[in-house]
Structures are given as structure tokens and as C-alpha cells.
Amino acid sequence: MLLRVDRLAAGRQRDVRIPADRLDSPALHRDWLVVRVLLGVAIMLGVSAVGIAFWLTLQGVPEPVLVWFRSVVVLGLTGGLGYFSFRAEQGWLWAYSRMRLFSFVFPAVTLVIAAVPGLYPFWMTVEQVAFAAIMLTVGAILSTRRMRTAYRRD
Fold first, then answer.
1. What is the pTM assigned to this prediction?
2. Could you give the CA distance from residue 56 to residue 65 in angstroms, rounded to a whole number?
3. Where exactly are the transmembrane stretches of this chain (predicted)?
4. What is the rounded CA–CA span in Å between residue 73 and residue 23?
5. How far apart (Å, rounded) are the C-alpha atoms in residues 99 and 82?
6. 3-state secondary structure of 115
7. 42 lies in which domain range?
């Protein structure tokens, strides 16, 4: 089943795998652990956003559809990044390159949208900034020399 998902997500690079000896570094394993923890925090942040919107609705303060849409979509995208990290840690180049790209694209879009006055309630703007900070940290880890060296294409 994973190969079907990979085929959809990977495109032409679906068969390119990094040699296992390049990935067998304790420092690299620590980096991936930090990335997994950060993605876990981002997922918890996303679940919290859905929970806050639900709670506010129960309190008689219904949130706009845009809040619900953003919360669910970002939660789904973060889950997708979790899958990419799982596959990248196994040595799949496509997953690493997608993670590295999206860890900079998602926060850039998030920060631009968060900057639009009045689009989201204050609590969601704070959540967006926190999400962007987490994702930029993931991007910084994925862009270290150690990671780029391990995931170079030969």
C-alpha cells in the first residue's frame, strides 16, 4: 500500500533511494527524532485548533467556515509531512526533497495569510505563527549540511 501512495507522491524520483550507510549516523538519527517531535507538536497544535473552534461553537461563538477549513487542511497537510518524514528517514530521496520544500512553503503561505487583518480570530493568528515557527525549524534542520550531504543525489 505504501508503494501506491509513494507512486502518487513521488513522481519520477519514486525509485531513488539513499544508500543505507549514508543514513547510519547517530547525529542524523537525532535530527530525525527532533523533526518527528516537531511534527508531533504541529499535529497537536492542529488538533487544538479544531478543538478550540469546536469549543467556541459550543459556547455560542460559532467560528467562520474559513477557520474550520484552515484547521482541517493544515492538520491534514501536517499529517502528510509526517508520512514524508517516515519515508525520508527510510532513505527515499523524493520524501526528503518534498519535506524540505514544504517546510518552507507552508510557513510562508501561513504567515502571509496570518498578516491579513481580520481574516482570522486572534487565537488562530497566534496558532498560525506558532505553526510557521515549527515548520521553519523543521526546514532549518532538513537544510543542515549533515542532511544535505546524506540526501545528496549521486
1. 0.88
2. 13
3. 33-55, 67-86, 98-116, 122-143
4. 32
5. 9
6. coil
7. 24-150
The residues near 62 (Cβ < 8 Å, ≥ 6 apart) are 56
The domain tally of the chain equals 1
Helix (H) or strand (E) holding 30: helix 26-58
Strand partners, 123: none
Which positions ≥6 away from 56 have C-beta within 8 Å? 62, 63
Q: Which three cell numbers stand for residue 66?
A: 474559513
User: pLDDT of 85-126, one tens digit each?
Assistant: 999 999 989 899 999 999 999 999 999 998 999 999 999 999
| Nearest residue to 100 (alpha-carbon basis) of 88, 110, 86 | 88
55 located within any domain: yes
Instruction: For residue 140, tell me if it sits in a domain.
Output: yes
Chain-centre distance of CA 79, in angstroms? Answer: 7
* 121 belongs to a structural domain: yes
Residue 16 lies in a domain: no
Residue, of 101 and 16, whose pLDDT is higher: 101
